[in-house]
Amino acid sequence: MGSGAQLTVTDLRRAARHPVDHKVIGEHRRLGDVHLHIANLSAHGFMVSGEVDMSRGERVIIRLPIVGRIEAHLIWSTEERAGFQFERIIRLDDFIQLIDTLQPNPRLRRQR
Questions:
Q1: How many Cβ atoms are within 10 Å of 45's Cβ, its own excluded?
Q2: How much is the pLDDT for 107?
Q3: pTM > 0.85: yes or no
Q4: Phi, psi of 31 (to 5 degrees)
Q5: Which CATH class is domain 1-85?
Q6: Cβ neighbourhood burial of 61 (10 Å; 0-12, 13-18, 19+)
Q7: What is the CA radius of gyration of the chain?
Q8: What residues have CB less than 8 Å from 66, skipping those under 6 apart?
């Protein structure tokens, strides 16, 4: 039996995604520090570019501006990208501030 997360919300890919270019160091139980490059972000999760040496359901803790430490579970991965779901949804007002911090160019922000 795997020790991965038992995910209940598996398909939130239709949530509004905001393009960002943000590098973080995540904390992983088995791998220790992992470098991640967040390419887009929603209130439910994020996508990273680059290969991730994790299996579906594995957890990573990252630190984001405004939000602070938040845990996420790997939902899908390919050789070039991976999608993570947050353990909790980010509140709307915090998410707006987060996007304003990570994507200061208003032309690149999605319409709200």
A1: 23
A2: 61
A3: no
A4: -90, -15
A5: mainly beta
A6: middle
A7: 13
A8: 94, 97, 98, 101
Token pair for 106: 């208003």
Question: Dihedral sign, CA of 67, 72, 76, 81?
Answer: positive
Local confidence pLDDT in tens for the 112 residues of the chain: 445 544 445 455 556 889 999 999 999 999 999 999 999 999 999 999 999 999 999 999 999 999 999 999 999 999 999 999 999 999 999 999 999 999 866 665 555 5
Which H, E and C letters describe the chain, residue by residue?
CCCCCCCCCCCCCCCCCEEEEEEEEEEECCCEEEEEEEEEECCCEEEEECCCCCCCCCEEEEEECCCEEEEEEEEEECCCEEEEEECCCCCHHHHHHHHHHHCCCHHHCCCC
Distance separating alpha carbons of residues 14 and 34, to the nearest angstrom: 27
